[in-house]
Write a structure and sequence with these properties.
The protein is of the alpha+beta class. It contains ten helices and seven strands.
Length: 479
C-alpha cells in the first residue's frame, strides 16, 4: 500500500555547525590563495608585456632617430654639394671676367708703370678667385680702371687698324654665343647698336668719334658677358633651388608617409598588445572556468555552468575576431564571474557534503532498525536512497535542499498502517511514524543532525503542513 510522502526538516547540531564553519573557512582560504596566484600570474604577464612593449618602443625610437640622422646627413650633403657647385660657378664666372679684364689690359697702350699696377691688381684678384668671396665688385672696379686707362692711352690721329679692331670686337660678341644673347637680350642689343656706331666712325673724319666709342664698346661687351654669365649662373641656381625644393618635398612626403606608417604600426601594436593582454588573462583562468562549469553541472547548477561557458565563448570569439576592446571587456566579465562562481560552488559543495553526511547517518540508523539498503543515486542535487524491511515494506528516501533547509522525504510502501488514499480527517501512520522517529533519534545521538517533526499531508495532530518540498517534481528512484 502507498501513502502520502512523509518529510522532516533537518537542522545541524552545534558541533556539526562548527565543523561546517571550519570547512567553509578552509575553502575560502583556498579560494583566496588561488585568486592570489592568479593575480601573480596576471602581474607576471603584464610585466612581460610591458618589457616587450618597451623594447618595441626603443626599436621604433632608434629607427626614427636613424631616419632623422640619415635625412639630415643627406640634406647636409646636398647643401654642401650645392654650395660647392655655387662656388664652382662663381669661380668660373670670376675667371671669365678676369680673363676679359686681362684681355682688355693686354690691348691698353699706356706707360708700363700704370699697366703694371693694374696687372698686379689683376694677379691679386686671380689669386683670390675660387674661394667663397664674391669678387664681382672688385673685378668691375678693375675693369673700369682698365677701360679708363685705355682711353687715356689712345694717340690722337691714329686711324690705322680701325677695321681690325672693329672685327675683333664683333668676333668677341659672336664668341659669347646665343646663350649670352638669350640671357641678356637688352645688353646684346646695346652692344650691337654701339658696334654699329663704331662702324660708322671708321670712315673719314671719324677718328675722334671712334676713339671715344671704343672704350664704351669694350665696356659694353664686357658688361654684356658678365651680365649673361651672372644670369646664366642665377638660372642654374634657380634650377638647383627647384631641385632642392623638389627633393625636400619628396623627403617631407616620405617623412609623412613614414609617420603614417609608424602611426599605423603603433595602432597595430596597441591592438596586438590588447589582444595579448586578453589572451594572457584568459590563459590564467581558462582551466579554472572549465573546471567550475563541470563542477556546477555535478552540483546540479546547470545555469551557472551555462553562464560560465557563454562568458568563456564571448572571450574566445572576440579574440578570434581580433576585437581587442571586446576581448578585454569579455575577459574582465569572465574574471568577475569566476570569482562569484567559485564562491557559489563552495556553498554548493558544502551543501552536498552535508547531504552526504546526512545520507551516511540515515543509512547507519536505518540499518540499526533492521532495514536493508537496496540502492541509491544522486539526481538534480538530491540524494535518493532505498531501504527494505524484512516484512517487504520499502522506504524510498530523498535528501534534498529547500532554500537554506535540508529536507528528509520518505515514500513508504507495504506498511499496514499506510493506506493508498488516506482520509485527510483520519490519516494514521502510528507504527511507521514511531519507526521513523526511532531512526531520527539514532541520527541525533550519533551524527550531529537534528531532524524535525515528521509530518505528512493528512496528519491529524496540529495544523496541516504545506506540500513536501519537491512533491510535484516527479521523483525518480533507483533500486
Amino acid at each position: 500500500m502507498s501513502g502520502s510522502p512523509k518529510y522532516s526538516t533537518v537542522t545541524v547540531a552545534p558541533a556539526y555547525a562548527r565543523l561546517e564553519a571550519e570547512r567553509r573557512r578552509a575553502r575560502e582560504a583556498a579560494r583566496r590563495r588561488q585568486q592570489a596566484q592568479r593575480a601573480r600570474e596576471r602581474a607576471e604577464s603584464a610585466a612581460r608585456r610591458a618589457r616587450e612593449a618597451a623594447a618595441r618602443r626603443d626599436r621604433a625610437r632608434a629607427e626614427a632617430e636613424r631616419r632623422t640622422t640619415e635625412l639630415a646627413a643627406r640634406r647636409a650633403a646636398r647643401q654642401e654639394a650645392q654650395a660647392a657647385r655655387s662656388r664652382q660657378e662663381q669661380s668660373g664666372a670670376d675667371a671669365r671676367r678676369l680673363a676679359e679684364v686681362g684681355e682688355l689690359l693686354g690691348r691698353v697702350r699706356a706707360p708700363d708703370s700704370e699697366v703694371r699696377v693694374l696687372r698686379d691688381q689683376l694677379d691679386l684678384l686671380r689669386g683670390r678667385a675660387g674661394g667663397a668671396e664674391d669678387l664681382g665688385p672688385a673685378i668691375e672696379e678693375l675693369r673700369g680702371r682698365v677701360v679708363l686707362l685705355g682711353r687715356e692711352g689712345e694717340a690722337p690721329g691714329r686711324g690705322a687698324g680701325h677695321g681690325a679692331v672693329l672685327a675683333g670686337l664683333e668676333e668677341r660678341l659672336a664668341r659669347m654665343g646665343p646663350e649670352a644673347r638669350e640671357h641678356d637680350q637688352k645688353g646684346y642689343r646695346h652692344c650691337v647698336d654701339l658696334l654699329g656706331e663704331l662702324r660708322a666712325a671708321t670712315g673719314p673724319g671719324g677718328e675722334t668719334r671712334f676713339r671715344a666709342l671704343l672704350g664704351t664698346v669694350e665696356h659694353a661687351l664686357a658688361r654684356h658677358a658678365a651680365t649673361a654669365g651672372e644670369r646664366a649662373a642665377e638660372e642654374l641656381r634657380r634650377a638647383e633651388r627647384a631641385r632642392e625644393a623638389a627633393q625636400q618635398a619628396q623627403e617631407i612626403a616620405a617623412g609623412q608617409e613614414a609617420d603614417r606608417q609608424a602611426a599605423a604600426e603603433a595602432e597595430r601594436e596597441r591592438l596586438a598588445a590588447a589582444l595579448a593582454e586578453a589572451a594572457d588573462r584568459l590563459g590564467v583562468i581558462r582551466q579554472s572556468v572549465r573546471e567550475a562549469a563541470a563542477e556546477a553541472v555535478e552540483l546540479a547548477d546547470p545555469g551557472l555552468a551555462d553562464r560560465a561557458e557563454a562568458a568563456l565563448a564571448a572571450v574566445t570569439g572576440a579574440l578570434a575576431a581580433g576585437a581587442a576592446a571586446d576581448a578585454l571587456t569579455a575577459v574582465a566579465a569572465l574574471e568577475e564571474l569566476l570569482v562569484g562562481a567559485e564562491a557559489r560552488l563552495d556553498e554548493l559543495q558544502l551543501a552536498h557534503t552535508r547531504r552526504m553526511d546526512l545520507a551516511q547517518a540515515l543509512q547507519d540508523a536505518m540499518l540499526g532498525e533492521g532495514f536493508a539498503f537496496t540502492g541509491g543515486a544522486e539526481q538534480d542535487g538530491r540524494l535518493l536512497m532505498s531501504f527494505e524491511r524484512p516484512s517487504g515494506a520499502t522506504y524510498r528516501t530523498t535528501i534534498g535542499t529547500d532554500g537554506e533547509d535540508t529536507v528528509l522525504l520518505y515514500q513508504v510502501d507495504g506498511e499496514p498502517d499506510v493506506v493508498l488514499r488516506p482520509d485527510p480527517d483520519d490519516a494514521v501512520c502510528d507504527r511507521t511514524e514511531d519507526l521513523l522517529e526511532r531512526v531520527h533519534e539514532a541520527i541525533v545521538e550519533r551524527n550531529g543532525f537534528v531532524p524535525g517533526e515528521l509530518t505528512w499531508q493528512g496528519k491529524r495532530s496540529g495544523p496541516q503542513p504545506p506540500p513536501p518540498p519537491g512533491a510535484a517534481k516527479g521523483w525518480t528512484w533507483t533500486r
